[in-house]
Amino acid sequence: MGISKGSAQWTGGIKDGKGVMKPAHAPEAPFSLGTRFEGQQGTNPEELIGAALSGCFSMALSLGLEKAGLKPQSIQTAADVQLDKQGEGFAITTITLTNETRVPGTNDEQFQKIAEETKKNCPVSKALGGVKITLHAKLAG
User: Fold this and answer.
1) Which of 14, 31, 127, 139 is the most buried (most CB within 10 A)?
2) Are 122 and 57 spatial neighbours (Cβ–Cβ below 8 Å)?
3) Distance of alpha carbon 77 from alpha carbon 96, whole angstroms
4) Other Cβ atoms closer than 10 A to 100
5) How much is the pTM?
6) What is the Cα–Cα distance from 17 to 56, expressed in whole angstroms?
7) Contact 115, 133 (CB under 8 A)
8) What DSSP letter does each residue of the chain carry, written as one string?
9) Residues 65, 96 contacting (CB under 8 angstroms)
10) Hey, which residues does 77 pair with through a beta bridge?
11) 133 and 119 in contact (C-beta within 8 Å)?
């Protein structure tokens, strides 16, 4: 398939330092201790993980629905990534995906089955295998 690339640079100490994360084909994303733990303007690695999982899930759900003979009109997915203190460090402990999909011609039972399979099998979910991922998916309108 291919190799996707990303990089990061950090300057300074943990409290006064700052950095940028850079996906290969997207703008730089500034981050710091303040953006990660104090709600300051900028981003953090957890937000990028949430965006990556949301994007992967949405794209894979489209494929799963199409394989079932369904044509999705829209798929919206958001991720809440929980970062908790563990011992001397931190860990991502849970990720909650919230999805709303508009797809004619299906029922909730069929949709939930496809959505759960998608959660288990999208590549980013697999990469995050050590993290509990929950899914709240619903059909729109």
Assistant:
1) 31
2) yes
3) 10
4) 15
5) 0.93
6) 31
7) no
8) -----EEEEEES-TTT-EEEEEETTS--EEE-HHHHHS--SSB-HHHHHHHHHHHHHHHHHHHHHHHTT---SEEEEEEEEEEEEETTEEEEEEEEEEEEEE-TT--HHHHHHHHHHHHHHSHHHHHTTTSEEEEEEEE--
9) no
10) 99
11) yes
The CB density around residue 77, as the number of other CB atoms within 10 Å, is 23
What six digits make up the tokens of 93?
Answer: 């402990």
The answer to whether 80 touches 133, Cβ cutoff 8 Å, is no
The C-alpha atoms of residue 133 and residue 45 are separated, in whole angstroms, by: 17
- CA–CA distance, 91 with 106 (Å, rounded to integer): 38
61: Cα separation from own chain's centroid = 13
- C-alpha 131/C-alpha 112 separation (Å) is 21
Q: Are 59 and 68 in contact (CB under 8 A)?
A: no
Please state the length of the chain.
141
Output the pLDDT for position 141: 76
- Radius of gyration of the CA atoms of the chain, in A: 17
